[in-house]
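Changelog excerpt

This revision adds worked examples to the README so contributors can see how folded entries look when concatenated. The first example is reproduced verbatim below.
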Amino acid sequence: MEELFVSHKAYKIDAKGRISIPANMREGLGNVFVASRGAGKCLALYPMEQWNKFMQSILEKVPQSDRKKLQVYFSANADKLSLDGQGRVLLNDDLRKQVNLFGESQAEIFGNNDHIEIWNCALFKQELESIDEMEVVAILDKYEI
């Protein structure tokens, strides 16, 4: 089984729109990966294998009536990228604007299992605070986890 991405931390976004990917996440991301809109107000970085699985799931599981919306949402906003020699990724301006990162000096990098998410720090804090502990326990109980 491949190693999952975990944890979160705020990282600086430089004037050119580059952000460092944590060293412990770089290898799992691979040499070439996909950056796209995430499901929510974030950017998602997918290793190529995970991106292909994700898009294949949409093709196989989502009826044609809804598939086009998902394909446009994710694929039209996607770029194939790689890290520079210092472990940074250059985030394009359009994607940064869509997820409230344009003009920000920091972003939260969140290892979300099979992909990495990059969030506006304030929005990530709101997301964390919106999760009710008892609701989490109830969900775990519901699925017998």
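The second example, added in the same revision:
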Amino acid sequence: MSAPPFPLPSTLQELAGVAVRDLARDFGTPTYVYDAAGITERVARLRAFDVVRYAQKANSNLAVLDLVRRAGALVDAVSAGEIHRALAAGWAASGEPSPIVYTADLFDREALELVLEHGLAVNCGSPDMIDQYGERVDGGEITLRVNPGFGHGHSRKTNTGGPHSKHGIWHEQLEACVARAAHYDLRVTGLHVHIGSGVDMRHLAQVAEACCELAVRTGPGLQSISAGGGLPTRYREGDPEPDIAAYFAIWDGVRERLKRGLGHPVRLEIEPGRFLVAESGWLVTEVRAVKRTSQHTFVLVDAGFNVLARPVLYGAYHPMALVPADADPRPLRDVVVAGPLCESGDIFTQDEGGLVRTQPLPEARVGDLLVIGGAGAYGAVMASNYNSKPLPAEVLLRAGKAQLVRARQTLEDLVRGEIIP
């Protein structure tokens, strides 16, 4: 089993044993490409935890969900659509531990009806969720997502803890929410704490300590704790691999302390999303124009923020590699890589706040391909039809073969469902 290439070389020809030019020829550009072996290996790396629960918002393609399920992971859903996807991918509605958990800060009406119809487990992120669920069921169990009062992340926009975050029940309201649940004969049996995406190991350790303190306050009925997600993902050369063994040891210590205090075992879950899929996904795009201003050389490709929004949202960095159309030697150039959209912000090489930066790449020419790495997470799931661009194809690489797992949208698809009265 070969790991996905990291860091990306300045030029490459293959992804997981498949020629990039063959992928472009067979599926067009832009196209998302996922490596099955890389995703499966990431699930296996977390096996020390009692439950690996995939946060499918990172990548919810049915083929990816099926792959993760077969690797032994359970799943998290944050919407009616994600509930539907989880069921379609083969997870059962009930079991122990719960195969599907609905985690959110609110119930929209459709999601609540699906949760009730299928008897799904619920992780409540607001007091109102407790009321809305409790009024419709005859007792049972829930878990609570708690905001511990602090947060962290690679961007302010991915920080999910602290007083400025909408996520979770504020820690000072924990006891009141436990009592609120008891009013509906609901037992609080689990606690979920997550402070942000892309946090470092030091902050993840702080979460574990906070969870321990909150778990004691939750009461003797606690059966499980969830470390949430947020495991670091490598994007730049020099980014370290997270020390999973050390991280597990921290949480296992918390679990053992709770076991001694409560007098019964406590299940330890982890909820990765980006960690499982980001590095095993790429966006293959074609160079369609190269032009210059007094300050920059722009390499314009046929993918924009409509298919990879992270740079425009967070100033996120993504590694890139050129796939030259010929064997000519190519000197390195500092370039700005941008897309086709009618927006000044449609630039892949930018820092948070929209500051344009350059990236060294071999001299690009029209007809070359460009591979953007780290696109397995928050690529396809955030894609849109902005500028009436069809959604790209999605392709899974397995054992040296490429399989189409989502067809490219057609122009007819773009207007399907629209009505001229």
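Reviewer comment on example two: Residues 153-160 have pLDDT under 50 and may be disordered. The chain has twelve helices and 22 strands.
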